[in-house]
């Protein structure tokens, strides 16, 4: 179990780098990522959403120590990511196919995050069985 737990921790650490890096970039540089000129209000909203993305990534990192005991936090974060992914999917349906980076984000949000959550639940259950934790 310990080897699989460490592999999960390493995987989450790597995957969470995506929201941390893109969120931090968005907070610091705003809409510059796309090169589109937007209103000050849209720029402010973009930076706010980037801050949330940064926070989600940091909170995923906070699950790494003792990941087998952080099921509730992991599930909540996964739910937030999936809801965001569903919003992105609605946008895809209504406005068309976004850039390859956005499709990659959609894949992480709707497939990778739920798979990691299921994996975390598996590790938590193995830990509970091994150590008699409820």
TrEMBL record:
Q: Which UniProt keywords apply?
A: Membrane, Transmembrane, Transmembrane helix
Keyword Transmembrane annotated = yes
Name the InterPro entries on file. DUF4345 (IPR025597)
**Pfam families cross-referenced by the UniProt entry:** DUF4345 (PF14248)
Superkingdom, according to UniProt? Bacteria
Query: What residue intervals traverse the membrane?
Result: 12-33, 45-64, 76-94, 100-119
Q: Does the keyword 4Fe-4S apply?
A: no
- This chain's protein is named DUF4345 domain-containing protein
Q: Which organism is it from?
A: Microvirga makkahensis
Source organism phylogeny: Bacteria, Pseudomonadati, Pseudomonadota, Alphaproteobacteria, Hyphomicrobiales
């Amino acid at each position: 179990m310990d080897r699989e737990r460490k592999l999960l921790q390493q995987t989450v650490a790597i995957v969470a780098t995506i929201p941390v890096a893109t969120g931090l970039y968005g907070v610091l540089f705003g809409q510059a990522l796309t090169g589109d000129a937007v209103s000050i209000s849209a720029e402010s909203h973009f930076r706010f959403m980037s801050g949330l993305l940064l926070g989600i990534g940091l909170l995923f990192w906070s699950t790494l120590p003792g990941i087998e005991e952080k099921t509730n936090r992991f599930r909540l974060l996964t739910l937030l990511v999936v809801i965001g992914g569903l919003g992105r999917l609605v946008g895809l349906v209504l406005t068309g196919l976004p850039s390859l980076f956005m499709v990659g984000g959609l894949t992480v949000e709707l497939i990778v995050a739920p798979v990691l959550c299921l994996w975390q639940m598996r590790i938590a259950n193995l830990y509970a069985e091994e150590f008699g934790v409820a």
